[in-house]
Amino acid sequence: MDNIFLAPLDENNKSVFPLSEFDQTASSVNNALLEIDGETISIERGLTYLKNSGELPKFLLEISRQYLLEKEIKNRSIEEPSLEVLEQFILELRIQQGLTTIDKFQTWLTEQGLNYHDFREKMKFLIRIEACKRNIAEPQLENYFLERQKDLEKLVLSRIVVAHAGIAGDLKNKLEGSHVDFATLAKEHSIVDDAVVGGVLGVIARGDLPQEIAQSLENCTTGQIIGPLLIDDRYCLLKVEEIIPTQLNNALKQMLEGELFDKWLKSRIQSSNLRLLLSEN
Predict the structure, then answer these.
(1) DSSP labels for the chain?
(2) Alpha-carbon Rg of the chain, whole angstroms?
(3) Which of 8, 58, 65, 190 is the 20 to 30 Å CA partner of 275?
(4) Residue 15 above 50 pLDDT?
């Protein structure tokens, strides 16, 4: 089980429960949201507070998100997980979170504001969301991978950074005209911190490179010296140590499925007709 998200799922998310459960609870207490010092706060009053504080858009976005997820799961007839799948999911989650003892697990449940029954229902819903994500992303995955393949390709780079164009030009001539070692010249001449390790930058995805550098490396080959490039008023020589092709392994597949799912959900939210039924009185 990879990267299990717990409440909050992200910065704005407060719950992963289906809205029907929330609605049933709300109606059973006669539209009351909570009680403070003996005084009941209604749902409408609570929403007004959120509106006044500027937090209402995030709150409504999360409600919309949960509703659309629940609806899509139903439309795609995604069934609840089997007991075996659920127990394995919970086991892996506990291992991932370090909840290996009953005491640690119970403390964590308390911190999350959950009892064990609610926790299991939450896990069931998470599993169904993952199934929905795969269902949505799978038909598009191959084409999306081909579209993203170049940006996901990784390069192993080294660099030499100097203050003057003339020095950079001389160093490039040395590198291209003799068997001078790039790392040695980096240690001797580069003015940035990575000079001590021979200018090695490590592995970088093409898509993470600044635009001007990415353009210079568009058609690069292993061993090629690129530059000098003027970057932040300094002159940079880059050596392409290695080009690592992109492979659609399980980790990358999960990442791309997540991206496709997020695009789908964002589009669904934006195309939904949302109307706030909140009295101005």
Answers:
(1) ------SSSSSS----S-HHHHHHHHHHTTTEEEEETTEEEEHHHHHHHHHHHT-HHHHHHHHHHHHHHHHHHHHTT-PPPPHHHHHHHHHHHHHHTT--SHHHHHHHHHHHT--HHHHHHHHHHHHHHHHHHHHHHHHHHHHHHHHHHHHH-EEEEEEEEES-HHHHHHHHHHHHHS---HHHHHHHH--SGGGGGTTEEEEEEGGGS-HHHHHHTTT--TT-EEEEEEETTEEEEEEEEEEE-----HHHHHHHHHHHHHHHHHHHHHHS---------
(2) 27
(3) 8
(4) no
CA–CA gap between residue 265 and residue 137 (Å, rounded): 11
In this prediction, residue 26 carries a pLDDT of: 39
- Write down the residue that tokens 């909050």 correspond to: 8
Percent of the chain with pLDDT over 90: 68
**pLDDT (tens digit, 9 = 90+) per residue, 62-119?**
999 999 999 999 999 999 999 999 999 999 999 999 999 999 999 999 999 999 999 9
Residue 215 CA to residue 263 CA, distance in Å, equals 26
pLDDT of residue 216: 92
Prediction pTM value? 0.71
Q: Which domains does the chain have, with CATH numbers?
A: 19-147+250-271 (1.10.4030), 154-244 (3.10.50.40)
> Over the stretch 125-171, which tens digit does the pLDDT of each residue have?
999 999 999 999 999 999 999 999 999 999 999 999 999 999 999 99
**CB distance 240 to 221 below 8 Å:** yes
Q: Compute CA distances 232 → 145, 161, 166, 191, 215, whole Å.
A: 33, 11, 16, 13, 16
